[in-house]
Design goal:
single chain; Alpha/beta knot; five-stranded parallel beta sheet; two-stranded antiparallel sheet; 9 strands
Length: 230
């Protein structure tokens, strides 16, 4: 998989992309991440990429030309399954969406700033708009890092135990059950006996019941009416 990220703050990705799972996936050749500075495509001597809003509203808007030229250059080199704009008014990111994106080959992610991007980019280039939550960030970089992580961890060979992702929260429509590790007894706080029993059938049943109860209490909107009633 190849992900191209368009931003005016490329250094913001050095931390999250140079550690842990994302770093290992790149080193293994399972993923490519390319960061593009939109300012490199500005045509004015000051490398400005924003201008005032038509109509007199407050704030600045990212200009159409630098973004369009950057996307055009990339599309001339390869085909992209999606051109994604990270924006608060996009479709809310969920596990199903991350699963779908992980099956794609090439993705572009555009990070907005200021009051947003010129609407003509959204009309003529963007194929998918994604939000990481109902709140506003200073820019799209953190959202792009979240989306990238949620996708790359699902690629075959990235996780040491590929079955681990299958038991993550949201994969089966439920939150994950509680998890424990050694010691089995810490200051009188004990691991549930069933998890120490070695009985796979009983352990699976316990995990499911715990997932269902945790989802019912914390995220009831994820459940159907029958499951809510127990």
């Amino acid at each position: 998989m190849r992900i191209d990220i368009l931003t005016i703050f490329p250094d913001m990705f050095e931390g999250p992309f140079n550690h842990s799972i994302i770093k290992r996936s790149v080193e293994k050749g399972l993923a490519e991440i390319h960061i593009h500075n939109i300012r490199d495509f500005a045509t004015n001597k000051h490398r400005n990429v924003d201008d005032y809003v038509y109509g007199g509203s407050a704030g600045m808007v990212m200009m159409v030309q630098p973004i369009a030229d950057c996307i055009d250059k990339l599309r001339a080199e390869r085909e992209y399954a999606e051109i994604i704009f990270l924006t608060p008014d996009g479709e809310l990111l969920n596990q199903g969406m991350a699963n779908q994106m992980s099956l794609k080959e090439n993705l572009i992610m555009l990070c907005g700033h200021y009051k947003g991007i010129d609407e003509r980019i959204r009309e003529h280039y963007i194929t998918k708009e994604i939000s990481v939550g109902d709140y506003v960030l200073s820019g799209g970089e953190l959202a792009a890092a979240v989306l990238t992580d949620s996708i790359i961890r699902l690629l075959p060979g990235v996780l040491n135990d590929e079955t681990s992702a299958l038991s993550d929260s949201f994969q089966d429509g439920l939150l994950s059950p509680p998890v424990y590790t050694r010691p089995a007894n810490y200051q009188g706080w004990k691991v549930p006996d069933v998890l120490l029993s070695g009985n796979d059938k009983e352990i699976k049943a316990w995990n499911y019941a715990q997932s269902l109860e945790r989802t019912r209490l914390r995220r009831p909107g994820m459940l159907g009416e029958t499951e809510k009633l127990g």
